[in-house]
Amino acid sequence: MVSAGHSLVILVSAGGSLLDRLAVSSLPGGRILEADFAAAETACCAALRLSHDCSREELQAGLRVWAGARGWLVAVAPAPESG
After folding, report:
1. pTM metric for this prediction
2. N or C: which end of the chain has fewer CB atoms below 10 A?
3. The domain that contains 67 carries what CATH number?
């Protein structure tokens, strides 16, 4: 088993499902440590800091399927463990 890692996740919705705290509560593969949301007239985004026990590659693969089903785009990057 991989030790807990931390990643930054950016979700973008431009015409997909509503993107808010409730919508990301079903996020697979990780625990949300911090979340920030922004919205404009036609798009919204979320920046999340996650803790996860799987590899970053496994996390990204799972999130792409989950986000894609909602019409969202996703990017995953390493995050510092503290902050």
Report:
1. 0.86
2. N
3. 3.30.70.260
